[in-house]
Design goal:
With 560 residues, the chain is α/β, with parallel strands linked by helices. The protein has 18 helices and 23 strands. Helix 7 links the parallel strand 11 and strand 12. The longest helix has 18 residues.
Length: 560
């Protein structure tokens, strides 16, 4: 008798081959038979009319902290995601000395917009080394985790305060190499670094103080293991991005490692720039380098309130500084002051076409409920004011809890985005799951891929879309025994209805430690999600079995 059988499904196996009808039998955590299964099982899934595919792999997340209180990484698992890669952008929660904890929390708050209260009330700090952190997150893990170690925290571990002051000495670099080896031995899938991010004081993060010889020394260690280097390049400048991808290409060739950079957006004003970047990617792949740009599926939507220092205001120092460093009382007083407003309004004039289009999506008071769903232009007309002043007035009236939405800011030309997603050298990712929880909801990027680009627009086949987010991702990241539906592979499987799969509407929920809120999206059309041979989530019963694993990179697969 089998442990689990999926019957009557349309199998899309992750290779890109045409779908076919078959049953899948599972014993323990492995697929043992694909075909006609007549034997019984302890549990069965009826997949009639549904697609059966490998579980989806999300290669760019920041679930590092959430995993400490939620081993399911909700709601990612419900969207068919069976493996996540946290630790991106030079930030991971280990290795981390006790004295640096609040420094790192500040960086997560600044860069990934993670609430300080969530760390204070949701995290029990009982680890320092990477190995100890891995032991900690294994408790109650329902989703697979292939964690990166952050360059910034390795620098902090070795150099302490000097990590944010100078380049490293030869001795310090050698020590960093040793720390990286310890992390890779403990299960790290690779290393992440950043060339753009800022810390809680709006100063460069530690990784930005590293010189080329330090990065190369760490890449040489990755070469010993065949594991991944992920970077955030200066994505706002195509020339700098190309220079970084050239740097990655040389490291990839010299040390035989896969590399990836994110994000890469296709906006109306940067089409030529993206085309230049992709042309250079093709050139480097032709040389034998592996330099994978990560591209997200969804358009750029940003929500914000004045209670959180939104990245939307980063280019406007007067606005961002008070949001970042002011108390709620100071922020309210600042935006209430008439003299301040005279200075503030001209500062945001470069985006004067944006503000009228913002939609008010959430308020706390009954008096302003009548404005929810309206644009700032509409609200300003009703209140006999300007859109910018209406935004400030509502924020003050709501105690900073007026939430606004800027929808479709970019990455929304379907044909051009589909061209990127279909490109053989593009890596679908950059979801940022677990981060920016009050700015946008990334959950459902996979549902959007299938609903929008496969089903509605017919710009991708279901087979190619599945391959992109399963076997291709597993191969790039060196994730063993996953990404394909094949006898002998581990049974990480998503069962979904292609006619109904989609991401739900964003909704505001209160499920973050410290009485915190975030925006999430429910899954639609996902029937069953299997992790390690057990049903981890189903539409009928919700979250169930807990069989997630920590998945280090594997030299043989990464070098393939």
């Amino acid at each position: 008798m089998y442990d689990l059988v999926i019957r009557n499904g349309k199998v899309v196996d992750g290779t890109g081959a045409p779908a076919y009808d078959a049953d899948i039998a599972i014993k323990g955590n492995r697929i043992v038979k694909i075909g006609k299964v007549t034997e019984g099982a302890r549990e069965e899934v009826n997949a009639t009319g549904k697609i059966v595919s490998p579980g989806f792999i999300d290669p760019h997340t920041h679930f590092d902290a959430q995993l400490l209180w939620d081993g399911c990484a909700k709601p990612a698992l419900a969207h068919g995601v069976t493996t996540i890669v946290p630790g991106n952008c030079s930030l991971s929660l280990a290795p981390l000395k006790a004295k640096h904890r609040m420094k790192l929390v500040g960086m997560f708050n600044q860069i990934e917009e993670m609430p300080l209260k969530a760390f204070k009330e949701g995290v029990v700090w009982d680890w320092e080394t990477f190995s100890e952190y891995i032991t900690r997150i294994r408790k109650g893990l329902a989703i697979n985790v292939a964690p990166l170690v952050g360059h910034s925290v390795i620098r902090l571990w070795v150099m302490n305060e000097a990590a944010t002051e100078r380049t490293a000495t030869d001795a310090e670099i050698a020590e960093m190499q040793g720390v990286l080896r310890e992390c890779l031995d403990a299960g790290a899938a690779g290393l992440s670094t950043s060339y753009v991010d800022m810390d809680e004081k709006l100063l460069p993060v530690p990784s930005r103080y590293a010189d080329a010889r330090e990065v190369e020394a760490l890449a040489s260690v990755l070469g010993e293991y065949g594991r991944v280097l992920q970077i955030v390049p200066e994505f706002y400048d195509s020339d700098l991005t190309i220079a970084r991808l050239d740097q990655l290409a040389e490291l990839s060739l010299k040390y035989n490692i896969p590399t990836t950079f994110s994000p890469l957006f296709m906006n109306a004003d940067n089409v030529d720039a993206v085309n230049r970047v992709m042309a250079r990617v093709d050139e480097q792949f032709a040389r034998g380098a592996r330099v994978w740009p990560q591209v997200q599926t969804r358009p750029i939507d940003i929500s914000f309130s004045f209670s959180v220092p939104s990245l939307l205001f980063m280019r406007f120092p007067s606005w961002y500084r008070i949001m970042r460093f002011g108390t709620p009382e100071e922020i309210i007083a600042f935006f209430s002051d008439a003299d301040n407003r005279k200075k503030l309004i001209p500062e945001v004039a470069p985006l004067q076409g944006l503000w009228p289009t913002l939609v008010l999506r959430h308020v706390e008071t009954d008096a302003n409920q009548k404005y929810v769903g309206k644009t700032l232009k509409e609200i300003a007309e009703l209140r006999n004011t300007t859109p910018i002043e209406a935004m400030m007035d509502l924020s003050v009236e709501e105690g900073l809890e007026a939430h606004f939405l800027s929808a479709g800011m970019g990455h929304n030309d379907d044909a051009k985005v589909a061209g990127l997603l279909n490109h053989p050298h593009v890596h679908i990712g950059a979801s940022d799951g677990g981060a920016h929880i009050l700015s946008f909801s990334t959950y459902g990027d996979t549902g959007y891929l299938f609903s929008h680009f496969v089903r509605d627009l017919n710009l991708m086949t279901v087979e190619s879309a599945v391959k992109k987010i399963t076997s291709e991702t597993a191969a790039i990241w060196g994730i063993p025994d996953r990404g394909l539906l094949k006898e002998g592979m581990i049974a990480d499987i998503a069962v979904f209805d292609l006619s109904t799969i989609a991401r739900g509407e964003e909704k505001f929920v209160n499920d973050v430690p410290g009485d915190g809120h975030r925006y999430v999206r429910d899954s639609h059309g996902v029937d069953t999600v299997i992790v390690g041979g057990g049903i981890a989530w189903s539409e009928a019963k919700g979250y169930q079995d807990v069989r997630g694993e920590v998945l280090p990179g594997v030299r043989e697969m990464a070098a393939a």
